User: What shape does this take?
Amino acid sequence: RFEFKYLVREESLDKIRRSISNFVIHDPYAKNARDGVYQVSSIYFDDNKFFSYFEKIDGIKGRKKFRIRTYDNKLNKNSYVYLEIKRRDEVVIFKDRSLVPFRNVLEGLEEGSYEKLLEHGEKDVTNQFVAYFLKKSLKPNVLISYRREAYLDSKNYSFRITLDQDLSAARSYKISFERSGLSRILPGYAILEAKFNRIMPAWFGPVIRS
Assistant: This one.
């Protein structure tokens, strides 16, 4: 798929919502969230030389990043999280994910007991995540959290718009989604992201231009 991000002022969000209201529906995945807004928290991994960070900064066209993501506000031993591998090939984005028990992630990636972790989720993705984790000696690097508002084109569900607000971050030294130590990033701004498989709908161009 293709992904395009735009930095917008928070004061412009209501105008954006009005501009897209005739073309979109709320993302069904957010139907149980209050006002259609849900929390997204991700732990990003990197090696001691920050290879993922510098590949991003240098604009490397073929690169990967590894993260663990949750949509829960609080995790417990029975919670599940996503292992995610996000890949870029030129301008095309691929994302592979595997839903696994959080307790097995802690036992595997922090304590070295990988056997139970490898039994869960999408096996190929879990195996690849663990293999790269070991090969590159990956470690938790940063925790990113924000509130997400998501919409789908009412006539083309492959086109998705997200509004990410209250972006916060903190250095991460262990696999923990505790948000108490987060600091606001880009205060006063939100991130609008358009995601689509082939063609961006014609109605979205004027929204961005305005």
Remarks:
- The chain is about 20% helix and 45% strand.
- Helices lie at 13-20, 51-57, 102-110, 123-135, 204-209.
- The mean pLDDT is 92.
- The longest helix spans residues 123-135.
